[in-house]
What does this fold into?
Amino acid sequence: MKKQFFRFFIAGALWLCCMMSGPRSYAAPVDSKMFSASNVQIDVTAENAAAAREQAMQDGQKKALMVVMERITPAYVAEQLPELVPDDILNFVQDISVSNEKTSAVRYMATLDVRFNPEAVRELLRQNDLPYVRTSGKPLLILPIYKRSASATPILWEEENAWLRAWLNRTAESYMIPLFVPLGELSDVQTLNVDQILRGDLSAAQELAKRYEAEGILIVELIRSGQTFTVKGRAMDEATASEIPNFTFSLPLVKNTSATFARAVTKVVDHLEGVWKSEQMVQFNESASLVAMAPVSDLKQWETIKGRLDRIPLISSYYLQAARSGVLQLTIFFAESLERLQKEMNKRMLSLTVLPSGVFKLTTMEQLSYLPFGANVVPSDKEEKTMMPAAEEENASP
It folds into this structure.
C-alpha cells in the first residue's frame, strides 16, 4: 500500500511540476570559454592614434573570431565563411577586455580578450551549412600518477611527484573540456590513494571528483624509461570512457625533466581537445524530431536523464510536454541521423528504442564500475588508441 501511495505521489508531483510550468524547452549548456579568445595581440600604425586604435580593434576582433572558429569547426570552414565586415563581427561580440595598451602619435598596441555570443556564432555557421562543436565536454578530474621507472612504485601525492606539479603549473589552456587537478591537500590524500586508483575503486575516486566539481575521472600515468617518457591515459568511469578512448604516446627528454613534463601535459591537453572536437562535430543544417516516453520513478531520475541529454551534441533542444503515471513525454529535436543519435545516447548511458506505436522509449542505463587501470582486456575499436609513437617525435638531445 505504501509503495502504491509513493508511486501515485511521485506521478502526481511530476505531473503538477510539468503542468504548472507548461511545456519547457531545454538546450545543452555552453561553456563560454569555448567561444572566447584570450591574449590576442594587436599592433597597428595609421595616420593618427585614433585611427590606429580603431583599425587595431577591428583587426583584433576578426583575429579572435578566427581563433574560435578554428577551435570549434573543421579546418576548411574558415575558407567557406563569407567575408565579414567589422560591423558584422561586432554583432557577434559579447564583451572585450583590453590590457597592455601602448600608444604613440601614429601607433596603437594592446592585448585583447574577446568573448563571443555563442548563439550568434552558431547561427552564422548554421546559415552557411557548416559543421561545428556545439557544447563543451564535462569537467574532468585528472589523476597524474608517476613512475620513475617501469619497475618503480607508482606515486600520486608524494612530494617527488613532478608529474603532478607539472599539471598544477600547466600553462596549456583547455577550452573544450574543463580540467581539474587535485591539490594534494590532506582531505585529498585521505579520500583516494594510488592503490585505490589502480584497483578501480570508483566510489572513492568519485568522492574526490565531487569535491572538485568534476563529472568524470581520467588517470594520466607517466612512466620514465631512461631518456624516454611514456604517457598512458585511461578513463576511470564508464561514462568518461565512452567519450575518451584510452591513449598512449612517448616522447624523449627535452632539455630537462620539467620541460619534458610540461610538454607532455600540453600534448595530453591537445589530445583531449582534439578527441572532443572530432567526436562532437555536428552538421546542423537539417534537423528532425521525435517523441519519446521516459519512465521515471522520482525527480532525481529525471534530473539524471536531463543531465545526460544536455551532453549529447546532436540534440539542439528538447521539450518536456507532459507527465503522467510516472512517465514523461518529451519531444527531442536533433541533427543528422536517428542512428547516430542512438549511438550518442548509448555513450551517455541512455537507451532510445522504438515502440510498436512508433513512439520512442527513453531509459537510463546503469553505470558500470570500470576495470582496474592496467587490467588485461580484449581490445575493441575504443581500446588503446595510440596518439604518436616515440619514433615520430622530433629528435632532442638530453
